[in-house]
């Protein structure tokens, strides 16, 4: 099962540039028609430098540029269920931003006498000026 | 953010429910492709059965994204500071998902007001699928 020794394990840093087309494709996939996600002029009129990422887009960046693999965690993808998701947001993400993602195993624990095994992965997204924009924490569970 | 919300609500208010879906296989496939989330439980019935599910399920993150859209509608111009959900039951193809929120606290702070909401997604089958909280800032 999840090894306690995983706690604190940290992925290499991945640097990604927020691509306008990818952000818009995601916004379409969630059915959004909000101009803030599609129209730079509308976003600027609202005081933003460019279109905004949808509020769960940070998780897409993790999926599109994974830091830790299922093999790193020692479980098959098919056995992991997403149990909780948290986003702490310090600054919006805009098209053209360069962000650095770093994923850390924040915790490993069990419930129900080991029948449920949890792993918590915390990913920080830091802009190139050193500001932490978003911290995304995903809790996954494996049933045994 | 410079837009100022016009939302009017008070502590204890239940905000108008917003409906999304019905969930379709095409919607799940589009979400998987656009988000990079290749969760096998959403795309592969055998993998879903092996995990103890009854069949393929929609990504939990699709419903969380819908809650995000609902928050933008309930609280236009607010800044989302912190939000968290638990995925308490699967969402299946065919489900219509209703997003709802209750305002639980409004506290003044240096930049306006911090608004705390309980948020929930529920299917028309009556099953709560996501439950959580959101903290937003409203400029005043």
Coarse structural class of chain A: alpha+beta
Q: Return Rg of chain A in Å.
A: 17 Å
Greatest interface and its residue counts? A-B, 33 and 42 residues
Give the SSE order of chain B as H and E letters. EHHHHEEEE
Oligomer: heterodimer
Number of helices of chain A: 4
Average pLDDT for all residues of chain A: 95
Q: What does the largest sheet of chain A look like?
A: 5 strands, antiparallel
Please tally the β strands of chain A and state the result.
Answer: 5
Strand % of chain A is 35-45%
- Distance between the first and last residues' Cα of chain B: 12 Å
Report on this model:
- The complex is a heterodimer of chains A (144) and B (140).
- By secondary structure, chain A is an alpha+beta fold.
- Chain A has helices at residues 20-29, 40-45, 57-64, 70-73; strands spanning 14-17, 81-89, 98-111, 116-127, 132-143.
- In chain A, 19% of the residues lie in helices and 35% in strands.
- In chain A, strands 1-3-4-5-2 form a five-stranded antiparallel β-sheet, with helices on one face.
- In chain A, β4 and β5 (132-143) form a beta hairpin.
- The N and C termini of chain A lie close together (9 Å).
- With 140 residues, chain B is of the alpha+beta class.
- Chain B is elongated.
- Residues 1-5 of chain B have low confidence and may be disordered.
- Classes of the chains: A alpha+beta (144), B alpha+beta (140).
- β2 of chain A pairs antiparallel with β2 of chain B, so a sheet runs across the interface.
